[in-house]
Design brief:
By secondary structure, this protein is α+β, with helices and mostly antiparallel strands. The protein is built from six helices and five strands, in the order βααβββαβααα. The chain has one domain: 3-Layer(aba) Sandwich (Aminopeptidase), CATH 3.40.630.30. Strand 2 and strand 3 form a beta hairpin.
Amino acid sequence: MDIAVRDVTMDQLEQVAPLWDQAWRVSGRRRTAVPLALSIDRMRRRVDLAAGGGYRFLGAWIDDTPVGIATVSLTDGGPMMDAPGVHIHVLHVDEEHRNRRVGTALLTEVTRWAGSLGSDQVVVDVPPASRDVARWYAAWGFGPYLNRRVGTTSGIRRRLGMRGPVDLTNGRGRLAAATAMGRAAGR
Ligand SMILES: CC(C)(COP(=O)(O)OP(=O)(O)OC[C@H]1O[C@@H](n2cnc3c(N)ncnc32)[C@H](O)[C@@H]1OP(=O)(O)O)[C@@H](O)C(=O)NCCC(=O)NCCS
């Protein structure tokens, strides 16, 4: 069975939306499906981001069926990394297509990309409750790294006493940052 891994394009978003929704639900971020338009908007921002370099939104396909997705970006990694690494934010295989090497195909492309950027480390976020997923990565040589914490921009701003509105709608700031990272990586 041939598995093709390619960058997701704008015209594929509707096809990929159910997988995107599934990934967000299994990660424990929410229990119910969100409206299609919202998923498409979130994915469109990722495809936009990818155009700037330093970020990729990958889809795995068997024939014309999307069976897996991954989003990855270059990451600084902080003091624990000597050089920028590649960070897997999501790597998700459709529940009906597990154990057919789709995850392996996505990880292969991510690792190939890391190598082409001169990155010698790949980092992944695994939801704390996903022991199975952690085992899968452990089998590929991933060990424990940082304990990540997350806060909302508005909550942090409030505690810092920052005033004025914050525009979280157009993602332009992130696009600019990714473009600069992409240029630095020669992509
Ligand atoms: C983890 C995951 C990516 C694996 O994808 P997959 O396509 O099923 O895995 P593959 O078929 O490529 O696995 C290859 C090998 O790993 C083994 N494997 C599969 N799942 C495993 C697991 N949980 N633990 C250990 N090994 C596992 C397979 O048996 C296979 O070994 P083999 O070739 O010797 O038979 C997939 O199960 C998944 O998407 N899980 C949910 C991820 C998630 O939580 N997403 C949301 C947040 S990002």
